[in-house]
Design goal:
This is Polyribonucleotide nucleotidyltransferase. By secondary structure, this protein is of the alpha+beta class. It is 31% helix and 29% strand. Helix 1 runs parallel beside helix 2.
C-alpha cells in the first residue's frame, strides 16, 4: 500500500514515499527533500553465505549524472566506476548502520541509494543516509534501528543545519553526525581549527536534530514496517568454549596475547589454534568453530584485562602513546619527504609540486567543486602487515584514509594567490599496527613543510579507543590504540588538528552509540596527545616550512594581466603561447581573471617568458626601450618581433643616423636590435626608431 510521510527538516519538506516504487525490495523509501530525489532500498539474501565469519554488508551510493542535467564524459557515455565522492558517501552511510545489525547475521545485505535529482539547496548525501535507515527499518531484515543523520555547517560562528552546497563552500565546519534514539553512533568532520568545546557543541546540536528525525521514522515504521525475519544464528557452542579453556587456561592466553610485538602475538595464537585443532580433530561439529572460538577467547581476555586490570597488551599506561620518531628528507630528488613512526606503525609521505594545470578535475554532482588543487593519497600494501597478496589498486579503505588526511590538512594550506601550485602528497604504509591514517597526517604535514609549502601550522593526528562494560558508566578510553585494541575494542575515534583546534574527526564504533561523557573524554585525550606529538616529536624534526621550494621542484612566477589581453597571449590557435613555451621550456597557465603562472626550473628561461608575456600585454608607450628581432625586410623599412606575436615597424629613415638607400645595407634577417618607441604617427600607427635610441640604453 502506497503511503507518504512529510516532516519539516531545516526549513524544508522531507517527504518519504513508501510502497510507491521498488516494491520487490525488502524495504524501499522514495525520498524527496526539496527537489532532491533519492531512491533508497534494502535487500537481503534468503540464506546466509557459507564459509564466512563476518556480516556481508554492501552500501552503494550511485551518482546519476542526469540528476544534474549532465551526460557522462568518456566514450561510453554512461556511469561507470563509482567516484571517490560516491565511495566516501557509501562509507559514511555504512559506519553507523553496520553496528545495528546482529553480529552473527551472515545473510548478504545491500543498501543501495540512487541519486535521481539534485537540488543545490538540499544535499543528496543527507537524503541517502536517511533513506538507507528508513528502508532498513521498515524492511523484514533484522536491524536494531532506526538511526538518523544530520550535517552541520558554521558560517560566522553560527551553526547551520543541513547547509546548502553554496553554504558548504564558505563554511568553517563540515560535520556529519549519526545517532540512535539515545546515543551518538558516528561522527565525521572537517573544520578550520575549531576549538574542542565548539566541536562538542556542534555534535550535540546535530544529535538533537537526529532525535527529532527518529521520531518521524518511528511513525513510518509503525504504519509500514514489516515483521523482522528469523535467521540462522552463528554462535560458538558453549561446550566448545569450556573445553578450549580447559586446554588453554586464561593465564596462558594472557601470556600469548600480552606482548608489544605483533608478530610474536600472531605466532602465539597460531600455535594455540593448531593445538586446539589437533585436540578436537575427531569432533567435526566443533572444528568449524575453532578459529572463532580462539578469536572470542582473545577478545574476552584483552577486554577483561584492559577494563578490569587497566593492563594493555603492550604494557603501556592507559593514556600512554607508543614510542614515536619523525624524520624528513629520507627520499632524495623528490620535492619533499618525511617519515613518521609510532610503535609498529610507520608511514612515509612524499610531496610533489606542479603547475595549477595539473590539479585534479572532478566530474560529479556538486556544481561548486570542479577541481582539486590538493590531492592526498594513501597506500596500504600487504607487506605492511606481513601478508602476501597482489596489488589491485586502492580499495574503499585506502580511499577513505586518503580523504581523511586530505580533509585534515586542507585548512592549513596556503591560498593559491600565495602559493600557486597543485600539491600531491602520497602516504606509503611501510608498517601497520593501528592508526596508519593518523600517522599519515603527521608524515604529510612534515613532508609539506620539507617541500617548502608554507602551511599555516603543522597538523597531527591521534586515535583513541574504548572498552565498555555492563553499563554506560563502565568504560575506559585508551589513548593511541594499536591494531589489537582496535579489533577487540568498541571504538576508533580519530582526531586531527593543530595546537589551536580540530581540523578533522572520524569516529567508527562497534556498539550502539556513545554517551556525551565518552565523546568529551575522547576529544580531551586526543587534544593532550596531539599537543605532545606536535611539540615533542614533529617540531623537533622540522620547526617551520622551508623558505622556498626544493632544488628539484618547479619554480613558479605569477603575474597579473588584463583579462582582455588573454587572447593576445594565446594567439590564433594557440600559436603565440606555444611559441613562448617551445622557446623557453616553461609551462604557462592562464586563468580567466588574468592570473598567469609561469612554471619552470631555469630562472633565466622563466624571466624571459614573463618578459615576453608582459610585452605582449602592454601597449607601446612613447620613450619605451625594446629589444626586437628583424623578421621581415621591406623597401620602406623593417619589421621587428619583440615577443611572439608582437611586432612593430622601423621606417627606413629611422634605421641609421645617415641616409641609407636600402634597408639591407644596415639590417639582415635575424638581427637583434634595440629600438625606442616614438609614439603614434599621423595615421595612428605606432612607430619605432633605431637611430634615436639614447646612448645610455644601447
Amino acid at each position: 500500500m502506497y503511503k507518504s510521510f512529510t516532516m519539516k527538516l531545516a526549513g524544508k519538506d522531507l517527504t518519504v514515499d513508501i510502497g510507491r516504487v521498488a516494491k520487490q525490495a525488502n524495504g524501499a523509501a522514495f525520498m524527496h527533500y526539496g527537489d532532491t530525489v533519492v531512491l533508497s532500498t534494502a535487500t537481503a539474501s534468503d540464506k546466509p553465505r557459507e564459509g564466512i565469519d563476518f556480516f556481508p554488508l554492501s552500501v552503494e551510493y550511485e551518482e546519476k549524472m542526469y540528476a544534474v542535467g549532465k551526460i557522462p564524459g568518456g566514450f561510453n557515455k554512461r556511469e561507470g566506476k563509482a567516484s571517490e565522492h560516491a565511495i566516501l558517501t557509501s562509507r559514511v552511510i555504512d559506519r553507523p548502520m553496520r553496528p545495528l545489525f546482529p553480529k552473527d547475521y551472515r545473510n548478504d545485505v545491500t543498501l543501495s541509494n540512487m541519486v535521481m535529482s539534485v537540488d543545490p539547496k538540499c544535499d543528496p548525501e543527507v537524503v541517502a543516509m536517511l533513506g538507507s535507515a528508513i528502508a532498513t527499518s521498515i524492511s523484514d531484515i533484522p536491524f536494531d534501528g532506526p538511526c538518523a543523520m544530520t550535517q552541520l555547517g558554521m558560517i560566522n560562528g553560527e551553526f547551520i543545519v543541513n547547509p546548502t552546497l553554496e553554504e558548504k563552500e564558505v563554511s568553517d565546519l563540515s560535520l556529519t553526525v549519526a545517532s540512535t534514539r539515545e546515543k551518538v553512533i558516528m561522527i565525521e568532520a572537517g573544520a578550520n581549527e575549531l576549538p574542542e568545546q565548539k566541536m562538542i557543541e556542534a555534535i550535540f546540536m546535530a544529535d538533537d536534530v537526529n532525535k527529532e528525525i527518529i521520531k518521524f521514522i518511528d511513525k513510518i515504521v509503525a504504519e509500514c514496517g514489516k515483521e523482522k525475519h528469523s535467521y540462522e544464528h552463528y554462535e560458538v557452542p558453549e561446550e566448545l568454549f569450556s573445553a578450549v579453556k580447559e586446554v588453554v587456561p586464561e593465564e596462558e592466553m594472557e601470556d600469548a596475547v600480552f606482548t608489544d610485538d605483533k608478530q610474536t602475538r600472531e605466532e602465539n595464537i597460531r600455535a594455540i589454534t593448531k593445538r586446539l585443532q589437533e585436540k578436537f580433530a575427531d569432533n567435526e561439529e566443533w572444528m568449524e568453530f575453532i578459529d572463532d572460538a580462539v578469536y572470542q577467547y582473545q577478545k574476552k581476555t584483552v577486554r577483561r584485562m584492559i577494563l578490569r586490570g587497566h593492563k594493555r597488551p603492550d604494557g603501556r599506561a592507559i593514556n600512554q602513546i607508543r614510542p614515536l620518531s619523525a624524520e624528513i628528507d629520507i627520499i632524495p630528488r623528490v620535492h619533499g619527504s618525511a617519515m613518521f613512526t609510532r610503535g609498529q606503525t610507520q608511514i612515509c609521505t612524499v610531496t610533489t609540486l606542479a603547475p595549477l594545470s595539473e590539479a585534479q578535475k572532478v566530474d560529479g554532482l556538486d556544481e561548486y567543486i570542479t577541481s582539486k588543487r590538493y590531492m592526498h593519497q594513501y597506500n596500504f600494501p600487504s607487506y605492511s602487515v606481513g601478508e602476501t597478496k597482489p596489488s589491485r589498486g586502492p580499495g574503499r579503505r585506502e580511499i577513505g584514509h586518503g580523504a581523511l588526511a586530505e580533509r585534515a590538512l586542507v585548512p592549513v594550506l596556503p591560498p593559491v594567490e600565495k602559493f600557486p601550485y597543485a600539491i600531491r602528497t602520497v602516504s606509503e604504509t611501510f608498517e601497520s599496527n593501528g592508526s596508519t591514517s593518523q600517522a599519515s597526517i603527521c608524515a604529510s604535514s612534515m613532508s609539506l613543510m620539507a617541500a617548502g609549502v608554507p602551511i599555516k601550522k603543522p597538523v597531527a593526528g591521534i586515535s583513541c579507543g574504548l572498552v565498555t562494560g555492563e553499563n554506560d558508566e563502565d568504560y575506559i578510553v585508551l589513548t593511541d590504540i594499536q591494531g589489537l585494541e582496535d579489533f577487540f575494542g568498541d571504538m576508533d575515534f580519530k582526531v586531527a588538528g593543530t595546537h589551536d583546534g580540530i581540523t578533522a574527526i572520524q569516529m567508527d564504533i562497534k556498539i550502539h552509540g556513545l554517551t556525551r561523557a565518552i565523546i568529551e573524554e575522547a576529544i580531551a585525550k586526543t587534544k593532550e596527545a596531539r599537543e605532545y606529538i606536535l611539540t615533542e616529536v614533529m617540531e623537533k624534526a622540522i620547526t617551520a616550512p622551508r623558505p622556498e621550494v626544493g632544488k628539484y621542484a618547479p619554480k613558479i612566477i605569477q603575474i597579473q594581466i588584463d583579462p582582455s589581453k588573454i587572447g593576445d597571449v594565446v594567439g590564433q590557435r594557440g600559436k603565440t603561447i606555444n611559441t613562448i613555451i617551445e622557446e623557453t621550456g616553461v609551462k604557462i597557465d592562464i586563468d580567466d581573471d588574468g592570473a598567469v603562472s609561469v612554471c619552470g626550473t631555469d630562472k633565466e628561461d622563466m624571466d624571459r617568458a614573463v618578459k615576453d608575456i608582459q610585452i605582449i600585454t602592454t601597449d607601446f608607450e612613447k620613450g619605451q626601450i625594446l629589444t626586437g628581432k628583424v623578421v621581415s625586410i621591406k623597401e620602406f623599412g623593417a619589421f621587428l618581433e619583440f615577443a611572439p606575436g608582437k611586432e612593430g615597424m622601423v621606417h627606413i629613415s629611422k634605421i641609421a643616423k645617415e641616409r641609407i638607400n636600402h634597408v639591407e645595407d644596415v639590417l639582415t634577417l635575424g638581427d637583434i636590435v634595440k629600438v625606442v618607441c616614438l609614439g603614434k604617427d599621423k595615421m595612428g600607427r605606432i612607430s619605432f626608431s633605431i637611430k634615436d635610441v639614447p646612448a645610455d640604453a644601447q
